[in-house]
């Protein structure tokens, strides 16, 4: 049996905020899906670049120490990019799952509403502003 998708009006909002409209939720969904598609292409390109760098890493013939250092730096950079992009895809997938199950908009730390305006500006948000600020101070 397929899971029932939460309706826009059933999503949590902060006191004083209007309920989510279908149009607003559709905008967030479009943004999340668009970001996910873009990141998938970035990851694919970075993995391709990384595969080339890894293949070249074993071939030290004709490379001086500076060339090998530059290649190592490029490889480390590509690994970092791929890992950051994968993390963002995981955040997007979590946001989409939370929209689906109706928990979107609830802070994962304190359980209070995140705020519709924050979510519209940053759809992957999982923490309210207070909890996010507390996390960043650590």
Major β-sheet profile: none
Individual helix count? 4
β-strand percent reads: under 5%
Give the integer mean of the pLDDT values.
Answer: 86
Low-confidence stretches: none
Question: What's the N-to-C terminus distance?
Answer: 43 Å
Structural shape: elongated
Q: How would you spell out the order of helices and strands?
A: HHHH
Rg over CA atoms, rounded to whole Å, is 20 Å
- Helical percentage: 55-70%
Q: How many E strands?
A: 0
Query: Structural class, from helix and strand content?
Result: mainly alpha
Write up this protein.
This protein has a domain at 16-103. It starts with 21 loop residues before the first helix and ends with a helix. Helix content is 64%, strand content 0%. By secondary structure, it is mostly helical. The protein has 4 helices and no strands. The mean pLDDT is 86.
Task: Describe the structure concisely for a colleague.
This protein has 138 residues and is an all-alpha fold.
Defining traits:
138 residues, mainly alpha, single chain
Question: Which helices and strands, and how do they pair?
Answer:
Elements: H1 22-57, H2 65-101, H3 116-121, H4 129-137
Helix pairs in contact: 1-2
